[in-house]
Write a structure and sequence with these properties.
The protein has 316 residues and is an alpha/beta fold. The protein folds into 2 domains: 111 residues, no CATH class; 184 residues, Rossmann fold (3-Layer(aba) Sandwich), CATH 3.40.50. It contains 10 helices and 15 strands. The chain is globular, with a radius of gyration of 19 Å.
């Protein structure tokens, strides 16, 4: 899932130079750039975009969260060497020939998978040296971050995703990118104890699914609820065959709070780094991590990123 760290104002999103650069990319990539920018000026959503090669991508109704962000990030992906190989209405096949990357992504009301794909492979929000490392990926989504960690040399990636459809898509992408021997996929959710949990799902934006009772209640239309198996940290580490984690990545739409609050001192001692996206401010996360010997940096207010590292990982 990264909700996205980048889902702020349209003009603040382009790391390469702000509004002007974003507008130039839109003009270069979209054949109907005039109507796209006119819609933005009127604070409306464009009903579709048309690429210079004639491919048309429709959005559907009603307007969805983060649509403008996706309109901006698709040109960034294309500028970074990605291509759209196929469109079939609800899904798209994207590839990066130079990096030998291939992903099937959902093109739903808000281009559900375009945003995290850009975060992971263009903005590199999880950058680091993963050679020989073990990673827990909480919020695998379509598999983009799990593929990234594996391609960067991780020895083992334990990747957790609760939604059945998203999990199936991730399995396809793991196989397509040749990392199925490195990644241990688990369909479920992370919790302090084994059992089940109810997760609310917005069908038009499945990456916004959440078990947090008040998450996005005013902005998001949750139209169904599913029951998901839960796993503890110990369960996940056993499944991956590891006794410590070099990094825990979390993008789980609100579960980060209960997860960190549930960990024991022994749990924290087995983890070297956290990179997580928080969804309702940092609250006590910074204090919790600092109390267990982590150096913490964060950015963003309501939605933001937190990076916590140890000067020396126990057992390294």
């Amino acid at each position: 899932m990264p909700a996205t760290t980048l889902s702020m104002k349209f003009q603040e999103n382009d790391a390469g130079g702000g509004t002007l650069v974003a507008f130039r990319r839109i003009r270069r990539v979209y054949r109907n750039w005039v109507s796209v920018l006119w819609a933005y000026a009127r604070k409306r959503d464009p009903p579709f975009v048309e690429l210079r090669d004639g491919k048309r991508i429709a959005f559907g109704d009603p307007p969805r969260m983060d649509r403008w962000l996706a309109v901006q990030l698709l040109p960034r992906l294309l500028d970074a060497g990605w291509t759209i190989d196929r469109l079939d209405g609800t899904h798209a096949r994207l590839s990066h020939p130079a990096e030998r990357l291939r992903f099937t992504c959902r093109f739903l009301g808000n281009w559900s998978d375009i945003i995290p794909l850009s975060e992971v492979f263009v903005d590199k929000v999880y950058a680091g040296d993963f050679r020989g490392k073990t990673v827990l990926d909480v919020g695998m989504a379509d598999g983009d971050s799990a593929v990234y960690f594996a391609r960067c040399g991780a020895a083992r990636v334990i990747a957790v995703e609760p939604l059945p459809d998203t999990y199936a898509l991730a399995l396809d992408n793991l196989r397509e990118n040749g990392v199925e021997q490195t990644v241990v996929p688990i369909q479920g959710a992370v919790l302090s104890e084994k059992g089940t949990i109810e997760i609310r799902v917005p069908s038009h934006a499945p990456n916004r699914s959440s078990a947090a009772p008040d998450r996005d209640q005013n902005r998001m239309q949750f139209d169904r609820t599913i029951s998901v198996q839960t796993y503890t940290l110990a369960d996940l580490m056993r499944a991956g065959g590891v006794d410590r984690l070099d990094m825990v990545k979390m993008d789980c739409e609100g579960c980060e709070y209960s997860f960190l609050r549930s960990l024991s001192g022994e749990d924290f001692a087995r983890i070297g780094r956290f990179v997580l996206e928080y969804h309702d401010g940092p609250h006590d996360l910074v204090q919790i991590l600092k109390s267990h010997g982590f150096e913490v940096s964060s950015r963003g207010n309501g939605i933001g990123m937190l990076d916590a590292r140890r000067a020396q990982v126990p057992g390294a």
